[in-house]
Write a structure and sequence with these properties.
The protein has 646 residues and is α/β, with parallel strands linked by helices. It has two domains: 8-491, Rossmann fold (3-Layer(aba) Sandwich), CATH 3.40.50.12780; 516-637, ANL, C-terminal domain (GMP Synthetase, Chain A, domain 3, 2-Layer Sandwich), CATH 3.30.300.30. It is built from 19 helices and 30 strands. The strands form eight sheets. The chain has an eight-stranded mixed beta sheet with strand order 12-11-8-6-7-14-15-23, with helices on both faces. The chain has a seven-stranded mixed beta sheet with strand order 5-4-17-16-18-19-20, with helices on both faces. A four-stranded antiparallel beta sheet has the order 21-22-24-25. Strand 1 (41-44) and strand 2 form a beta hairpin. Helix 9 crosses helix 10. The N and C termini lie far apart (50 Å). It binds 5'-O-[(S)-butoxy(hydroxy)phosphoryl]adenosine. Residues 251, 296-298, 373-376, 398-403, 424, 490-492, 505, 508, 514, 519 line the site of 5'-O-[(S)-butoxy(hydroxy)phosphoryl]adenosine (WT7).
Length: 646
C-alpha cells in the first residue's frame, strides 16, 4: 500500500484535517483496509470519560488485512525472512515465507488452537524466542479472535507466572530452548517453573527449535510440530467487533505490578498500518528490518502488524548484534539488501564503541531509511548512525511512542519532514501534544517566545491509544488520566521549540527506568531486592550509562552482616534475575545506613539520582523536608560509582 503523505504540504493538510475533522480523516484511512462490515461511528469518548471507541459498528478480522487480501496480487511476494542466530546456518537454515505460505502456516496454527478449545476472547500466552512461530502464533490467535499476550523471552519464571495469572490464560506456547549469541536460554524449563505457580494452564505447547533435552509432563505438554501435522490450512477468519481486544502486553509503570495494556482491533490496525507506510515511506520492494524483540510493543506494531498490513517483506533476526562479531547487523543488511533499518539507540551506542572497521567492508548501499526507537538518541550516536550506517544519504526517523500509544505518535516522515539530530520533531496526524508546567497548567505553545520544557501529555484520542488495563479500568484511569484531568499523561518530559514547532523528548519524569530500551519500574526491582534475607529496605534509581542509557543502582539498608559487598551484589543480582529477569539486575548495590526520606516517609529518589549524576550534598538543593538531612552526606561518602562532576 502506498503512503498517503508524499510532500510537506500533504503532511500539513493531513495533520490539519485529522485534528479539525477526525471522523472524516480517519474514515478515509480506514477505507484503505478490508472490513467485513463498515463502521457506523468513527470515534467516540474522550480523556474525561475514558471510554474511547473507534470504528464502532465495524466488523473485521485483522488477519484478513495482514494475509488474505495480499494473496491475489502479492501471494508470491516474500512476507517474512528469518535469519538464524548462527550465521554459518549449521544449526538452522534461513527460513523464508511468501504471503501465501505464511497464510497457510497461520491457518494451520489457528486450527490447532481451535481444536484445543481456544475460543474468541480467550487469552493465549506466548513465550517464544525470535522465530517465525512467534509471529505465526500471534496471527493465529487473531484469526480466531483469541487475545494474545506475548511475554518477552528474557523474563523469569516468576514474571511469566504473574502475567499468565493476571491475564487468566489457559494455553501457553513456548519452545524447548533458544540461542542468543553463545547463550542458550532454556525456555521450557522456565515455563515449567512458571506453570507451577500458574495453575490455570491446561496445555503447554512446545515448539521444538533446538532439539535439546526437555522435561515433559504427559497430557499437559504437547509438541507444536505434532499438533500442526494434524491440521489443514483451513480456518475462517472469525468476525470481530472493532473494539474487540486484539492483545494484552504487560508494561512497567512507576508503581505496583506491571500493567496489562489492552489494545483493540480496528483502531490499532488503522493507526499502525497508516503510520508504518507513511513514516518509513514504504515502497513495494522494501526489505524492512526491525531489530526489536516481538515481546515488546515495537515488535508487535512494526515487526508483525505494520509490515504485514502493508504487504511489506519483514526481516526477523534470532540473534544479537555482537555475535559472532560486532559486524553482524551490517552483514545481515548486506546479505538481504535491507532497505529500511529500525533499531534502538542502545544498539547504536554499543556498536559505535567497536569502531568503524566492522562497517567498512560491508555494502550498505541498499539502505534508504533509518529509524530510532525506545529512548532519546544522543547526538554522538545520532551522528555515527547518520554518517557510518546511512553514509549521510538516509534520513533518520526518531520515532517517539509507548506501549500505551500503540503506534508512533511523534516522528519525522522520511524524506518529507526535517530530521534534525535528537528531535522526534512533529506530531503525526491525530496527535495533539500539550506541555504542562510544574503546576500542571498547559503551556500555550503557539504564543511562546522561548523554548519550554515540561510534562508531555496528549489532548485528544487517536485510533490506537490503549483502551484499558486488563480487568482493571480503574487503574487505567488513575495512572494516565487522573493527575491532569482531560489529558493523557505520557510520563515523559519534552521540550518545545517555538521557532520550528518541534518536540524533543528529554526523558522520563517518573520512576520508570529505560535500560537498553527495556522499560522497568523501580518499584518492581525494589520489591524483588527487599526479599533478600539481609535487606530491609531498598531504593532503586537509574544513573546515566554510556551504552545502556540508564544503569540500575540500588541503595539498600541491611539488618545483618554479609560476607562481602561482592557477595551481596551477586546474590542481589541473582534474586532480581529470578524475580524479574536478567534485564533488571542492578549494576551497583550500595549499603547505606538510611535512605533520604521525607517526614511522611516518602523516599526522595530525586536526591539519590542527583548524587549519581555527580552532585555533591551541597548541590542537591533543599533538603529541609528530609527527616534526617545528614543521611545524604553519608550516602555520598559511600558511593560506589564516582560520576564525573556535572
Ligand atoms: C518509553 C516507552 C514504543 C517504543 C518502545 C518503548 C521512551 C520511546 C522514544 C524516543 C525518546 C523514547 C519514552 C517512552 N521512548 N521512544 N524516540 N525518544 N524516548 O516502549 O517500553 O512502552 O517505553 O520509551 O520514555 O515513555 P515502552
Amino acid at each position: 500500500m502506498k503512503p498517503e503523505i508524499t510532500t510537506w504540504q500533504e503532511y500539513q493538510a493531513a495533520y490539519k484535517e485529522s485534528i479539525e475533522n477526525p471522523s472524516n480523516f480517519w474514515s478515509k484511512i480506514a477505507k484503505t483496509f478490508y472490513w467485513q462490515k463498515e463502521w457506523t461511528n468513527v470515534c467516540s469518548g474522550d480523556f474525561s470519560d475514558v471510554n474511547i471507541r473507534w470504528f464502532d459498528g465495524g466488523i473485521l478480522n485483522i488477519t484478513e488485512n495482514c494475509l488474505d487480501r495480499h494473496l491475489a496480487e502479492r501471494g508470491d511476494h516474500l512476507a517474512l525472512i528469518w535469519e538464524p542466530n548462527d550465521p554459518t546456518e549449521k544449526m538452522h537454515g534461513v527460513r523464508k515465507y511468501t504471503y501465501r505460505q505464511l497464510y497457510e502456516e497461520v491457518l494451520c496454527c489457528a486450527q490447532m488452537l481451535q481444536k484445543l478449545g481456544v475460543q474468541k476472547g480467550d487469552r493465549v500466552c506466548i513465550y517464544l524466542p525470535m522465530i517465525p512461530e512467534i509471529l505465526i502464533c500471534m496471527l493465529a490467535c487473531a484469526r480466531i479472535g483469541a487475545i494474545h499476550s506475548v511475554v518477552f523471552g528474557g523474563f523469569s519464571a516468576a514474571s511469566l507466572a504473574e502475567r499468565i495469572n493476571d491475564s487468566d490464560a489457559h494455553i501457553l506456547i513456548t519452545a524447548d530452548s533458544a540461542f542468543r549469541g553463545n547463550k542458550e536460554i532454556h525456555l521450557k524449563e522456565i515455563a515449567d517453573k512458571a506453570i507451577q505457580n500458574a495453575p490455570g494452564i491446561q496445555h503447554c505447547i512446545v515448539y521444538i527449535h533446538t532439539g535439546c533435552a526437555i522435561p515433559w509432563v504427559e497430557g499437559r505438554d504437547l509438541k507444536y510440530q505434532d499438533l500442526i501435522a494434524q491440521t489443514t490450512a483451513e480456518c475462517p477468519a472469525v468476525p470481530m467487533e472493532a473494539e474487540a481486544p486484539l492483545f494484552i502486553l504487560y508494561t512497567s509503570g512507576s508503581t505496583g505490578k506491571p500493567k496489562g495494556i489492552v489494545h483493540t482491533t480496528a483502531g490499532y490496525m488503522v493507526y499502525v498500518g497508516y503510520t508504518f507506510r507513511n513514516i518509513f515511506q514504504i515502497r513495494d520492494d522494501d526489505i524492512f528490518w526491525c531489530t526489536a524483540d516481538v515481546g515488546w510493543i515495537t515488535g508487535h506494531s512494526y515487526l508483525v502488524y505494520g509490515p504485514l498490513l502493508n504487504g511489506t517483506t519483514v526481516l526477523m533476526f534470532e540473534g544479537i548484534p555482537t555475535y559472532p562479531d560486532p559486524g553482524r547487523f551490517w552483514q545481515v543488511i548486506q546479505k538481504y539488501k535491507v532497505t529500511i533499518f529500525y533499531t534502538a539507540p542502545t544498539v547504536i551506542r554499543s556498536l559505535l564503541l567497536e569502531g568503524t572497521s566492522y562497517l567498512e567492508d560491508k555494502d550498505l548501499s541498499s539502505l534508504r531509511v533509518l529509524g530510532s526507537v525506545g529512548e532519546p538518541i544522543n547526538e554522538e550516536a545520532w551522528q555515527w548512525y547518520y554518517k557510518h550506517v546511512g553514509k549521510e544519504r538516509c534520513p533518520i526517523v526518531d520515532t517517539y511512542w509507548q506501549t500505551e500509544t500503540g503506534g508512533i505518535v511523534i516522528s519525522p516522515i522520511a524524506n518529507i519532514t526535517p530530521t534534525p539530530p535528537c528531535y522526534a520533531t512533529y506530531p503525526l496526524p491525530g496527535i495533539v501534544p500539550a506541555i504542562l508546567d510544574s503546576y500542571g497548567k498547559e503551556i500555550a505553545l503557539n504564543s511562546l517566545k522561548e523554548p519550554a520544557e515540561g510534562t508531555l501529555c496528549f489532548k485528544q484520542p487517536w485510533p490506537s491509544i490503549a483502551r484499558t488495563t486488563f480487568r482493571d479500568h480503574a487503574r487505567f484511569k488513575k495512572v494516565y488520566f487522573e493527575e491532569y484531568p482531560g489529558y493523557y499523561l505520557t510520563g515523559d518530559n519534552a521540550r518545545y521549540e517555538p521557532t520550528t514547532g518541534m518536540f524533543r523528548i528529554t526523558g522520563r519524569m517518573d520512576d520508570v527506568l529505560n535500560v537498553s530500551g527495556h522499560r522497568l519500574g523501580t518499584a518492581e526491582i525494589e520489591n524483588a531486592i527487599n526479599e533478600h534475607e539481609a535487606v530491609v529496605e531498598t531504593a532503586v534509581v537509574g544513573y546515566p550509562h554510556p551504552i545502556k542509557g540508564q544503569g540500575i543502582y540500588a541503595f539498600v539498608i541491611c539488618d545483618r552482616p554479609f560476607s562481602s559487598s561482592e557477595d551481596l551484589l551477586k546474590s542481589v543480582q541473582q534474586l532480581v534475575s529470578e524475580k524479574i529477569g536478567p534485564i533488571a539486575k542492578p549494576d551497583y548495590v550500595q549499603v547505606v545506613p538510611g535512605l533520604p526520606k521525607t517526614r511522611s516517609g516518602k523516599i526522595m529518589r530525586r536526591i539519590l539520582r542527583k548524587l549519581l549524576e555527580g552532585a555533591t550534598p551541597t548541590q542537591i538543593g533543599d533538603t529541609s523536608t528530609l527527616l534526617d538531612p545528614a543521611i545524604v552526606e553519608s550516602i555520598f561518602e559511600g558511593l560506589l560509582l564516582k560520576p564525573k562532576a556535572v
